[in-house]
Amino acid sequence: MLTLAFDTATQVATSALVWDGEVLAELTSRPVTVLEDVDALFRQGGVRPQQLEALVAGTGPGSFTSLRMGIATARALSLALDVPVAGVSTLRAMEAGAPGSLPIIDARRGEVFVLDGEPRVVLPAELEVEGRLCVGDGAVRYRSELEVRGAQIPPDEDERHLPRARFHIALADDYGPAQLVEPIYLRVPDAERSRA
């Protein structure tokens, strides 16, 4: 099955085109270039968009605006190409890329998103990290604080810090109409907070 996946929840967007488990093309970029990335993946993979059979979108948690871009793109492509969509948590994809790790995404405002059974938002000081491998842009941002408390964090450029789209495809199992794929929001958007 030819499947396209992308995740725009973090500052580094990832995308992949996979055919029956074989990665045909894979990119990292910025969330705002996701449509350009899709076009590049088809060219690099040597396939046409009409051959696509399924799509997987990262559902976060992450940046509100970036998540909306990714979900909107997934919905538009699903309608245009008549393919089903599955949503996969960004944190679960990161965990699949670094088995046994604690995925940590920078949530701004001095907080992080983590997968602790369920996705949640916490202060870095609330994490139990002693002896744990911590990955993600939140682990990189709060490296010194987490390492002092016993966390093991790979070098900044280590690919385990990225939510690789190829892992989204491996985790996807519930394909259906695009409108059923919803982003994971763990708090209200900044605009709503300011308005309140």
Structure notes:
It is a single chain. The protein is an alpha/beta fold and 196 residues long. It has two domains: 119 residues, ATPase, nucleotide binding domain (Nucleotidyltransferase, domain 5), CATH 3.30.420.40; 62 residues, no CATH class. It is built from seven helices and nine strands; from the N terminus they run E-E-E-H-E-H-E-H-E-E-E-E-H-H-H-H. A five-stranded mixed beta sheet has the order 3-2-1-4-5, with helices on both faces. The mean pLDDT is 95.
What does the secondary structure layout of this molecule look like, with pairings?
Elements: E1 2-7, E2 13-19, E3 22-29, H1 34-45, E4 54-58, H2 64-81, E5 85-88, H3 90-97, E6 102-108, E7 111-116, E8 118-122, E9 134-135, H4 137-141, H5 143-148, H6 165-171, H7 190-195
Helix pairs in contact: 3-6
Can I get a quick summary?
The protein is built from seven helices and nine strands, in the order βββαβαβαββββαααα. It has 196 residues and is an alpha/beta fold.
